[in-house]
């Protein structure tokens, strides 16, 4: 089991494009991946489900916990963490 | 007044413009689920799999179409819809329902409703609004399961104004602006997707007209949709029709004038030429800048090159991207700003210290000077790509002369390397700085020793001058770009630079704001650089001002004590133009 706790700093949080990118990235891996909104509390949800990720209501400056279990769990957590850290690779506007 | 049978309904103006024409009453297709025998779970689920394949094809078509008509941002919603089709949790929920004895159509609708209700109950409006998207996708799949064609608004065959209870994003996106002259909905709000899309596509619209809408309007009724005031007029009398036709014509003439003037260089009513340029960050936005009449690029942001990858971009990669953008701009001048990032948005390969306040921390030119290999790679790429084009280099967040001298020294080193390697590069490239710290603004005469030009970055200048974090919602009202202190620094920058024979531009948001343009013109700003979309209207405003008048405006503004007074005065000036 690999995990990472990270603050979401981009403006819209896990919504719209960033949410789509997060879920698309999770879907590249075979591992079971969950994500949880630490700031608001609540249960971990399937990181590969756009609907469940939206229901987390992750806004700017919320902390999330990413957990993965499986053959490629380490890379999955690494890539998802990077994606969040790089603000979903959005160019500033 | 004689009774003409004219009826007026008041709603919320959602998208500007006036349209006149017959009403088309759009009703949602009947998606009642018929009774049928339950099949095996795998058979039920394979019906679903087939349906989402068709749904995906429809959504891809819609996405491609909207990409062309409205752009990437607006089309993205249909990418999200496609992701909902493949959602594993949705599928799992449906499978459970089927196993409990529901046919797939019922299983779909109950799962969709569960998700929609979950989202609708969320506190944040943005998330709650997604419930409409989930229902939209659900209805699409159900319609396919029931074997019904995708009718939507493709059924409109002659120019009409659409009346509906509500419209889904799919409905709005499938409108043909030549046939759908506008739309009115009984429900909806300003921030609904349909309203946003209407504004992007330029279709006049009114929302929230209430239940009266369906009672008062019948198919084929003549209506006037006033998207400015949010008024729908049913059965207008001849006099009203004439009045609105006149407004329509005046607006069309104004639009034509804006568009054709945008391609002309901006000049004041008394003939002074003013450079109006664009702020861009990609080849795509460069094309948009040209299409909107930009006379140059006052700010080419380069951060995107650094934030997208796990490695810093190579010289070759940067060279290719810069060159593509310069090529699109032709011989128009382009100002490239060197790397402007900080700890608020760190790339993964730069090890950032934990900072209490990243906006006062290790950022912009400070990083470039500490990481010469990163800085020089960028300078080499710019110098090489600039060969044969009108390119200028600009450093962000300069505080004083020592930083500027060191940065210029790096430009010289990069040039020398290229010379030794016999690689072509732009030898006489002008080098300037952003004025975005109060320190730079008060030192402009000193900095003139090593800067060929100045560009005011008013977003940061406002933040640093007023000590107001522009991302902090609690103090958002204190962030005032028209604050007298900020305006004094702008005036001082322009005056000091002109005394030294240097020109001053502005690439902050202020440069494209109609409330600021008359003041900036009066203060003697030489170049206005803004969001490409703001160019046509800004040029039009400049065309209507004289230099003398703007001097008078600036003088008056500098005598006022608060932003509120300044704004009130400027609004009056604009209203009188």
Structural commentary:
The complex is a heterodimer of chains A (93) and B (577). Chain A has helices at residues 16-26, 50-55, 73-85; strands spanning 2-7, 32-37, 45-46, 63-69. The model of chain A has no long low-confidence stretch (mean pLDDT 90). Chain A is of the alpha+beta class and 93 residues long. Helices cover 32% and strands 23% of the residues of chain A. The longest helix of chain A has 13 residues, at 73-85. Chain A has a single domain (2-89), classed as HPr-like (Histidine-containing Protein, Chain: A, 2-Layer Sandwich), CATH 3.30.1340.10. In chain A, strands 1-4-2-3 form a four-stranded antiparallel beta sheet, with helices on one face. With 577 residues, chain B is α/β, with parallel strands linked by helices. Chain B folds into three domains: 7-28 and 152-257, Glucose Oxidase, domain 1, CATH 3.50.30.10; 41-145, Enzyme I, Chain A, domain 2; 263-576, TIM Barrel (Alpha-Beta Barrel). The longest helix of chain B has 29 residues, at 41-69. Chain B is globular, with a radius of gyration of 28 Å. Chain B starts with 6 loop residues before the first strand and ends with a helix. At the A-B interface, α1, β3 and α2 of A face α2, α3, α4 and α12 of B.
Strand line-up across the major sheet of chain B = 1-8-7-3-4-5-6-2
Largest sheet of chain B: 8 strands, mixed
Distance between the termini of chain A: 37 Å
Compute the CA-based radius of gyration of chain A: 12 Å
**Outline type of chain A:** globular
- Cα distance spanning the termini of chain B: 35 Å
How are the strands of the largest sheet of chain A arranged? 1-4-2-3
Main beta sheet of chain A: strand number and arrangement? 4 strands, antiparallel
Mean pLDDT of chain B: 90
Q: Outline of this structure?
A:
The complex is a heterodimer of chains A (93) and B (577). Chain A has 3 helices and 4 strands.
Q: Can you tag this structure with a few keywords?
A:
heterodimer, A: 93 residues, alpha+beta, Histidine-containing Protein, Chain: A, four-stranded antiparallel β-sheet, globular, B: 577 residues, alpha/beta, Glucose Oxidase, domain 1, Enzyme I, Chain A, domain 2, TIM Barrel, 3 domains, eight-stranded mixed β-sheet, eight-stranded parallel barrel, 24 helices, 14% strand
